[in-house]
From TrEMBL:
Keywords of this entry: Membrane, Transmembrane, Transmembrane helix
Name of the protein described by the UniProt record: G domain-containing protein
UniProt feature, compositional bias: Low complexity: 7-22
Superkingdom classification of source: Eukaryota
Alphabetical list of SUPFAM superfamilies matching this protein: P-loop containing nucleoside triphosphate hydrolases (SSF52540)
Transmembrane parts of this sequence: 354-375
Organism of derivation: Panicum hallii var. hallii
Transmembrane helix recorded as keyword: yes
Length: 384
């Protein structure tokens, strides 16, 4: 799994003989050992070892998952501020809600990702809750048209993700649209009709405007984007590599490099979706290609398949944690803190200067004393 995930599942289904001790929800990660019989006592030992290993693996995964989920559930803005240089959360301008923005080409899986992220928490809260974001089921549908805020988990007041309309093939429009979102902020149910897809997708724009008006009664808070999640379709990337057609990758590269998408020095996190249509090898290939093209470490790229399993849940939680931690590392510091620090620094500098002056005065006095003593001594010598 990409990013922080380091657990490799076995795809072999578990057998009742060897998985009886393993929590059922982790059965899919359990390695299978041969069934024990009297003639193969050596294999029985292997079976025990494998069982213990599987149990340990399942427990470790369970612990990591619980810890990662708790982190997101308990999080409130300011929690990850490390206090470098003696700073504390109160010294920073904290967002009311940490705001993550999804950016990506058409059909990259942004809305699918919103639903997949939500499901991680719904499993505990409400397993039968319906999906939230509408996915574009086929090429004829318009895709997401409005900026839409989704608290994560559903009832959260600490983290929200914004689903957005897709990037278009017109890079000038993409530039203006993203620059506006990143510099002026974003708000729920906002349309971006001035950057609509009229140039490349004809009269679809007509459908955007009425929708925008429909939701205009909602006056929503404008949020500053705290971190960007760049969503890409792994299958399109692989197609591009294999057919040597660089179009998709070039647009990704150009967009990814827009300076305003970075928060401080941190470029967006990249999520590769593919809906389980790629093999492990192909996924690794796509991840390496992206790391090279975008100039980021593979740890910043999270491979999130469509499958509903615990390892994907962990990748999602790791990705969210990455965003939150990096967002907090770049929060602006309050002016009064700066003034306080500046004031303290100025005082310290003044004190240092005075100390230095003190040393000079001391040296001068000593020098003068020596001179006086020498003069007196020479006086006495002359008198003799
Ligand atoms: N790329 C991708 N598509 C998936 C995945 N899982 C399902 N799909 C299907 O791919 C289509 C596009 O998914 P969406 O999530 O609507 O894509 P989007 O990025 O929100 O697209 P726009 O709203 O048009 O920008 C849908 O038909 C999904 O059902 C996945 O993991 N990756
Ligand atoms: Mg969408």
């Amino acid at each position: 799994m990409g990013g922080g995930g380091d657990i490799t599942p076995t795809s072999i289904p578990s057998s009742p003989s060897c998985s009886s001790e393993v929590p059922p929800e982790f059965a899919e990660y359990v390695a299978i050992s041969p069934v024990c019989d009297d003639e193969a006592s050596d294999e029985c030992c292997d079976c025990d070892d494998a069982e213990v290993e599987a149990l340990y693996f399942g427990r470790r995964l369970q612990d990591r998952l619980r810890e990662a989920k708790d982190f997101i559930r308990r999080y409130k803005p300011g929690d990850c501020i490390e206090g470098a240089g003696g700073t504390k959360a109160g010294d920073y301008i904290l967002p009311e809600i940490a705001t993550l923005l999804l950016v990506g080409p058409r059909g990259a899986g942004k809305s699918t990702l919103v639903n997949r992220i939500t499901r991680v928490f719904d499993k505990d809260d409400d397993p039968f809750a319906p999906d939230r974001a509408q996915v574009s089921r086929n090429s004829k549908s318009y895709g997401t048209l409005l900026l839409w805020e989704y608290p994560i988990p559903r009832n959260s007041t600490a983290i929200c993700i914004y689903d957005t309309q897709s990037l278009s093939s017109n890079q000038q429009n993409n530039f203006k649209m993203l620059q506006q979102w990143m510099t002026k902020g974003i708000s729920h149910a906002e349309t971006t009709t001035c950057f609509s897809r009229d140039t490349d997708e004809g009269n679809k724009t007509k459908h955007i405007k009425p929708l925008g008006r429909q939701f205009s009664f909602l006056s929503c808070k404008t949020r500053k984007v705290n971190f960007v999640i760049f969503v890409v379709d792994g299958v399109s990337i692989l197609d591009g590599i294999e057919s040597n057609k660089k179009g998709y990758i070039d647009i990704l590269h150009e967009t990814f490099m827009y300076p305003f998408l970075s928060i401080g020095d941190d470029k967006p996190v990249v999520v590769v979706t593919h809906g389980d249509r790629l093999s492990m090898l192909q996924r690794a290939h796509v991840q390496n290609e992206l790391a090279e093209v975008l100039g980021i470490p593979v740890q910043q790229i999270f491979d999130i398949p469509g499958s509903d399993d615990y390892q994907t849940d962990l990748a999602i939680l790791d990705m969210l944690r990455y965003c939150i931690q990096h967002a907090e590392q770049n929060l602006p510091i309050k002016l009064n803190y700066l003034l306080e620090v500046r004031g303290r620094e100025t005082l310290k500098n003044a004190a240092e200067r005075l100390m230095a002056l003190d040393a000079v005065i001391e040296a001068t006095i000593i020098f003068l004393c020596i001179m006086i003593l020498l003069l007196r001594f020479s006086d006495k010598l002359l008198q003799l």
